[in-house]
Specification:
Two copies of one chain form a homodimer. With 157 residues, the first copy, chain A, is an all-beta fold. Chain A has one helix and 15 strands. Chain A has one domain: Jelly Rolls (Sandwich).
């Protein structure tokens, strides 16, 4: 599988402890492409792991056109998925139960959940999908964070 | 730590293999609150793990007001973080290097990266932060997915 970028401006910038990738404005996410092993070139989906060197997740940015349904369902072997809808309206089917989603809806799905989704509106459905290994998180936030109260030097706005 | 919800409408809906939470429209994310162990009630940040039963990640939804800087830096012990900016413009400092971010910028930070960020614009900076254990992903996407080509039954739009 290889992903294609929408523009040369979307190259990854890397530092010692970070990677930065610019996916462009939400309205341009429909122009992203991916190469699917069976379905060929698919528009409006872009997996980012290779751009951003993720080691604990895979994340895709997505834009599904008005009226379009994903043409298959899927489950996972060991990964939990999280869908974050940030623009538009649609529906998910999870184990044949239908739920409505819209801007601000966040859905966690266990590996065994049989899932598919569609855009049943007249505007693009824009969303982020996060894939992580189920039960892999050991600690988080205040247990895992190391605060540093040194003064922060910012240039004037 | 306990989070508060912006409205009773934001209760979690749970099925066998999923959890659904409605965070509301992006412009309402500024009204979410969290209880910080040192700083007390913090507006514009909401951790979702307890609402959505995540087992492989923690995710927060965030809205930082115009002109505001996070008043501290932090590192992590074992977690990789990913920042996805979905509205507005700002800057991150990572190990004292400043990078510009805006709608569509995605930043991975290794546990050791010393990070802070600010909104240096006149509009809210809206973003999602994902926390996962570094090196926890074993397989993903086509290796981990189980496609199902059974016909999908959707009600008419």
């Amino acid at each position: 599988m290889s992903d294609t970028k929408i523009a040369a401006a979307n190259e990854t910038k890397r530092g010692t402890n970070y990677s930065l990738y610019n996916g462009g404005s939400l309205q341009d996410w429909s122009q992203h492409k991916m190469e699917h092993p069976v379905r060929g070139k698919v528009r409006g989906k872009h997996f980012l792991k290779d751009h951003l060197d993720f080691t604990g997740c895979e994340i895709s940015i997505n834009s599904l056109p008005a009226g379009v349904a994903v043409p298959f369902s899927h489950q996972h072997k060991e990964n939990e998925e999280v869908y974050i809808f940030i623009q538009g309206q649609g529906q998910m089917q999870i184990d044949h139960e239908i739920i409505d989603v819209s801007e601000g809806s966040i859905v966690r799905i266990a590996p065994n959940g049989l899932r598919t989704w569609r855009n049943n509106s007249a505007e693009p459905l824009v969303y982020i999908v996060i894939q992580v290994r189920e039960n892999s998180l050991r600690q988080h936030t205040f247990e895992d964070g190391i605060p540093n109260m040194d003064p922060i030097d910012w240039p004037a706005i």
